[in-house]
C-alpha cells in the first residue's frame, strides 16, 4: 500500500514536502486507491496513519466485502482483530483456501452478524463449529464449505438449520461420502458440488460410495436454477454424485437453466440419468450445459434439448462431429451472440462434418469453424486444445485466420499443430532439428541456428507474415493463452504413479518453435501463459520478448519445450525472468532440469513471485541455491519440487525450508519429493486443494467452467 509522508500528515504544504500531497486528492480518488489495498492492511495499518485515512478506511465501500482468500500474510490474530474492528460492517467474507488458519479462527466469524455471503472452502471447519457459527448468521444467503471425514449433520442445531433453510447458494466440496448440509438447504437456487473423495483410505482400505446412516435425507431441488458437479478421478465420486442426481431424475426443477457435470474418464449413463435427461428435454430451456462424454456420444440428446440464451457450452472429450455441432447446438449457423464461453477440448471431430470415417489427424472443414465464428461472434473464452486441428492449404481458411475475427476473446487454448503455417510445412524440407527423436535415447549433435534476441530483429524475418503472428496481433486484449501439444500428458497425474514415457508430438507441430513464441509478445495485456510440447524450440529466444513486452504476466507454465534430453531454453528463460516483475505463479515441467544457483538467482528478480512448482524427471537441484532463493523472495509461500534427487536430499531440504521460514510465512506450503517415488500419490493428497488445482497439476483451464460461477 502507499506511504503517506509524515510532513504531509502534520500539515506541511506540498511545496515544503517536495512530494505529492495525497491528502489533497478527493475522497472518491482516495477510496479508489484504497480499494487495491488488502482489507487487513487498511484496518490494521493504514487507518492508523492519519485522521482522514482513519475515516476513509472504514468506508462501507471498503468494508462491505472482505477478501482474505489470497492474503497469505494473514494469521489468526489479524483475523481476530479484523472481525473485532469491522465485523458488523462485513456483508461478504471470502476466506477460501485459508488452509493455514487454525479451525478456531472460524469462531471469530460470529461477530459478522450481517453476513450475506460466506466462503470457507479450504478452511478447517468441524460440524460443531459450523453449527455454532451459522446459528448467529441469520442473514446468510450464500455459503461455501468443505465436508471432511467426521462430518456429522446430526450435530447441527435447530438455529443452524434455520439459517441453512434460507441459503440460496451453496458450494460444497466433499472429501467423504455425505450429503453434507444439502438436505437442510430447502430454498436452494444454485448448487455447486466438488467431489474429491479418494477410493482408498490412507490405510489402504477401499471406500464405499454409500452414504452413512442418518444422512439419507432427501435434498430439496424444487427451486434449483443452477446445478454444477465436478468430479475428481475415482469410482466413489461417481457413486456419490449419482445419489445427488437421483432426486433430480424424479422431478426436474422447472426453473433449471444451467446443468453441468464435469467428469474425467468414463462415467456411464444409467436408467436414472437417462430419465433425468429426457425430463430436461421436455420441461426446461437451458442457458449452460456440460455432460460426461458417455452421455452425449452416440445419442440424439442434443437434438431434443432446448436452449434459451446459452452463455456456456462444454463438450470436452466428446466425439461430437462438426456437423452435429452446427445443426444441433448452433441451430444451423443461426445467431448465437449470447454464447461467451465454449469448451471443445479433446473434441477431436468437432471441426469436421462427420466422424465415422475420419481420422483424428485429417484436415478440418474450415466452413464449420467459419459458421462457429460468425454465429458466436461474442465469444470470450474458447478451448480447442487436446485435438489435431489441421488446416488445409486453402487461402484465407486457416484456423488462425478465422479465429482472428473473434475480437472479444479474453482466453484461448489451442493445440500446437493448429498454429503452424500449412505452406511452410509443405514447402520446407525436414531440418536436422525436426529429425531429432523426442525421446531419452542417445543425444544427437546438431547445428543450432542462431536466432535474433530482440523483437526488432525478429520483426524483419518472415514471422510477421505467419498466420499465428497475425492472430496474436488481432487479439490485443487476450489475457490467457494456452498452446498445448495435442499428445502432451503431464508426468504427474493426480491419483496415479508418475508417467515415465511421453508420446511424440504431432508431425504438423514439428516446425513450431522460437518464432511462434516471439509472436506471443504482441499480447500486451497477457496475464497467464501456458506452453507445452513445442518441439522446435532451439534457443527459447521468444521467451525474452514475452518478458520484455508482456509486463502484466502473472502466471507462466512451461512444459517439454525443445529437445527432451536437454533444457535448450535455460539461458533465455533466465533472461526472461529478470523482466517478470508481476509474475506470481511459475510452473516448469522439463526432464533434466537443473535448478541451480544461476536459475534461482534469475528467479529472484521476480519480486512478486508467490508459488513455484518444478516437475522434472532426472532433474537436479542445489539445496543452498533453493535456501538462498527463499530468503531473498519474501512473498514465496509455495515451493513444490518433484525431481530426480534422492528421498533423503528432498526431505532434508523440505525440513530446512519449513524450519527457516514457516514462522514468518504462515501460509508456507513446501513439498519436495522424488518424482518417481512410489509414495508420490500419498504426498500429493496432502497438498492444499488451492495449490493442487491451480498450479501443481497440469491441465487446460480455459473455459473449464462457466465464467463467474462463484463470487
Automatic annotation (TrEMBL):
Which InterPro entries does the record associate with it?
F-box-like_dom_sf (IPR036047), F-box_dom (IPR001810), FBXL18_F-box (IPR047948), FBXL18_LRR (IPR045627), LRR_dom_sf (IPR032675)
Q: Which Pfam families match?
A: F-box-like, LRR_FBXL18
The family database entries (SUPFAM superfamilies) matched by this protein are listed as: F-box domain (SSF81383), RNI-like (SSF52047)
| Gene3D superfamilies named in the record | 1.20.1280.50, Ribonuclease Inhibitor
Biological process (GO) annotations held by this record are: SCF-dependent proteasomal ubiquitin-dependent protein catabolic process
Sequence ranges assigned to domain F-box in this UniProt record: 19-66
GO-annotated cellular components: SCF ubiquitin ligase complex
**CDD domains associated with the record:** F-box_FBXL18
Q: Which domain of life is it from?
A: Eukaryota
Which named protein is this?
FXL18 protein
- Lineage per the UniProt record: Eukaryota, Metazoa, Chordata, Craniata, Vertebrata
Amino acid at each position: 500500500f502507499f506511504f503517506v509522508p509524515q510532513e504531509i500528515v502534520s500539515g506541511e504544504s506540498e511545496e515544503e514536502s517536495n512530494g505529492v500531497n495525497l491528502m489533497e486528492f478527493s475522497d472518491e480518488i482516495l477510496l479508489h486507491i484504497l480499494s487495491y489495498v488488502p482489507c487487513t492492511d487498511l484496518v490494521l495499518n493504514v487507518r492508523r496513519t492519519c485522521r482522514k485515512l482513519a475515516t476513509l478506511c472504514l468506508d462501507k465501500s471498503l468494508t462491505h466485502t472482505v477478501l482474505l482468500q489470497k492474503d497469505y500474510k494473514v494469521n489468526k490474530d489479524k483475523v481476530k482483530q479484523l472481525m473485532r474492528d469491522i465485523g458488523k460492517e462485513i456483508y461478504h467474507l471470502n476466506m477460501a483456501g485459508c488452509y493455514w488458519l487454525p479451525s478456531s479462527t472460524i469462531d471469530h466469524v460470529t461477530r459478522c452478524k450481517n453476513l450475506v455471503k460466506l466462503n470457507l472452502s479450504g478452511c478447517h471447519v468441524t460440524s460443531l463449529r459450523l453449527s455454532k457459527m451459522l446459528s448467529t448468521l441469520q442473514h446468510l444467503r450464500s455459503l461455501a464449505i468443505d465436508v471432511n471425514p467426521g462430518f456429522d449433520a446430526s450435530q447441527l442445531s435447530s438455529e443452524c438449520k434455520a439459517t441453512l433453510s434460507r441459503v440460496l447458494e451453496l458450494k460444497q466440496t466433499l472429501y467423504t461420502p455425505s450429503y453434507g448440509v444439502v438436505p437442510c438447504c430447502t430454498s436452494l437456487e444454485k448448487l455447486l458440488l466438488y467431489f474429491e473423495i479418494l477410493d482408498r483410505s490412507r490405510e489402504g482400505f477401499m471406500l464405499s460410495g454409500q452414504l452413512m446412516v442418518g444422512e439419507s435425507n432427501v435434498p430439496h431441488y424444487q427451486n434449483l436454477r443452477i446445478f454444477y458437479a465436478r468430479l475428481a478421478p475415482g469410482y466413489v465420486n461417481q457413486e456419490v454424485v449419482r445419489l445427488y442426481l437421483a432426486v433430480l431424475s424424479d422431478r426436474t426443477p422447472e426453473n433449471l437453466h444451467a446443468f453441468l457435470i464435469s467428469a474425467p474418464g468414463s462415467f456411464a449413463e444409467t436408467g436414472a440419468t437417462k430419465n433425468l435427461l429426457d425430463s430436461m428435454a421436455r420441461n426446461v430451456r437451458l442457458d449452460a450445459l456440460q455432460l460426461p462424454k458417455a452421455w452425449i456420444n452416440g445419442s440424439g440428446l442434443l437434438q431434443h434439448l432446448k436452449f434459451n440464451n446459452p452463455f456456456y457450452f462444454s463438450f470436452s472429450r466428446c466425439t461430437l462431429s462438426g456437423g452435429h455441432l452446427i445443426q444441433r447446438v448452433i441451430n444451423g449457423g443461426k445467431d448465437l451472440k449470447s454464447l461467451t464461453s465454449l469448451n471443445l477440448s479433446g473434441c477431436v471431430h468437432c471441426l469436421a462434418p462427420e466422424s465415422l470415417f475420419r481420422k483424428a489427424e485429417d484436415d478440418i472443414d474450415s466452413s464449420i469453424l467459419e459458421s462457429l465464428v460468425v454465429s458466436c461472434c461474442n465469444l470470450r473464452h474458447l478451448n480447442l486444445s487436446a485435438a489435431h486441428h489441421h488446416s488445409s492449404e486453402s487461402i484465407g481458411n486457416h484456423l488462425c485466420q478465422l479465429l482472428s475475427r473473434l475480437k472479444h476473446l479474453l482466453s484461448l487454448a489451442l493445440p500446437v499443430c493448429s498454429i503452424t503455417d500449412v505452406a511452410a510445412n509443405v514447402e520446407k524440407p525436414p531440418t536436422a532439428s525436426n529429425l531429432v527423436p523426442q525421446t531419452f535415447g542417445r543425444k544427437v549433435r546438431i547445428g543450432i541456428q542462431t536466432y535474433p534476441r530482440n523483437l526488432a530483429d525478429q520483426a524483419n524475418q518472415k514471422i510477421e507474415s505467419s498466420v499465428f503472428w497475425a492472430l496474436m496481433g488481432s487479439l490485443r486484449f487476450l489475457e490467457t493463452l494456452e498452446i498445448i501439444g495435442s499428445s502432451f500428458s503431464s508426468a504427474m497425474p493426480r491419483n496415479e504413479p508418475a508417467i515415465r514415457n511421453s508420446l511424440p508430438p504431432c508431425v504438423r507441430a514439428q516446425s513450431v518453435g522460437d518464432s511462434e513464441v516471439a509472436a506471443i509478445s504482441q499480447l500486451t495485456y497477457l496475464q497467464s501463459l501456458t506452453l507445452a510440447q513445442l518441439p522446435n524450440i532451439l534457443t527459447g529466444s521468444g521467451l525474452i520478448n514475452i518478458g520484455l513486452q508482456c509486463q502484466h504476466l502473472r502466471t507462466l507454465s512451461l512444459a517439454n519445450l525443445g529437445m527432451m534430453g536437454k533444457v535448450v531454453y535455460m539461458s533465455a528463460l533466465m533472461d526472461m525472468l529478470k523482466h517478470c516483475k508481476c509474475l506470481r505463479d511459475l510452473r516448469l515441467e522439463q526432464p533434466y532440469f537443473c535448478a541451480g544457483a544461476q536459475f534461482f538467482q534469475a528467479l529472484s528478480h521476480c519480486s512478486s513471485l508467490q508459488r513455484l512448482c518444478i516437475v522434472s524427471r532426472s532433474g537436479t537441484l542445489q539445496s543452498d541455491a533453493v535456501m538462498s532463493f527463499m530468503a531473498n523472495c519474501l512473498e514465496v509461500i509455495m515451493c513444490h519440487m518433484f525431481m530426480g534427487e534422492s528421498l533423503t536430499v528432498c526431505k532434508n531440504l523440505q525440513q530446512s525450508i519449513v524450519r527457516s521460514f514457516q514462522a514468518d510465512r504462515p501460509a508456507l506450503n513446501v513439498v519436495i519429493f522424488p518424482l518417481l517415488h512410489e509414495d508420490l500419490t500419498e504426498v500429493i493428497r496432502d497438498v492444499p486443494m488451492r495449490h493442487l488445482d491451480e498450479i501443481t497439476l497440469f491441465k487446460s483451464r480455459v473455459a473449464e467452467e462457466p465464467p463467474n460461477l462463484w463470487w
